[in-house]
Amino acid sequence: MNTILGGAFTSRLNENLRETHAYTYGAFSGFGMRRNPGPFLAEAEVVATKTDSSLLQFMHELNAIRDTVPMAELRKAKRYLELQLPGELETSRDIAGQLVPVAVYHLPLDFYNTYQAHIAAVTRADVQRVARAYVDPTHVVIVVVGDRAAIEAPLRATHVGPVQDRNLDGLPITQ
What is the domain class of 2-158 according to CATH? Predict the structure, then answer.
């Protein structure tokens, strides 16, 4: 699911914000994996004058991934995951890094022997189920950093949610 949404260069977020709209050099998403639930992040450094438009496109993609994924897009994501695995096992350091999740998440010792079969077994319904479980655009915290005078009014006009001004310590700014 995340490979399709924002985990690869050809993902929806990057295609939309970089290739279609030229708002950024790159837009990505990913899960902060922990033993317990961690954060899901979607991010990009965007052209300041397009902050509002970028936010709307992010929200569009977060909603769209919850719908059906075309079979061609699923095949492309599966192939990407299969082909990148050998590169993640090139050096001793890479191998050690790939063993950490096996230990931390108590994965089976044959995890990498069965990796391709598990990827091949993922269905469009699986992607939709995971997206609906873990990507909820109605329950997000959006952090925007930039020139307040230039971006605040356009951000408020998107009506994506309430805008709260915070300082560098995360404390509310009082006028």
Answer: alpha beta
Amino acid at 173: I
Look up tokens 């951000």; give the residue: 155
Query: Residue 55 and residue 43: Cα distance in Å, rounded?
Result: 10
Give the pTM: 0.92
CA 67 vs. chain centroid, Å, equals 16
Secondary structure of the chain: what % helix, strand, coil (to 5)? 55, 10, 40
Q: Tokens representing 94?
A: 């890479």
Per-residue pLDDT reduced to its tens digit, 17-44: 999 999 999 999 999 988 888 899 999 9
> Any idea what DSSP says for residue 109?
T
Buried b / exposed e over 140-156, threshold 16 CB at 10 Å, is: eeeeeeeeeeebbeebe
Q: Where does the chain have alpha helices with state H?
A: 2, 12-14, 51-64, 71-84, 92-104, 115-121, 124-134, 148-158
User: What are 68's two structure tokens?
Assistant: 């059906």
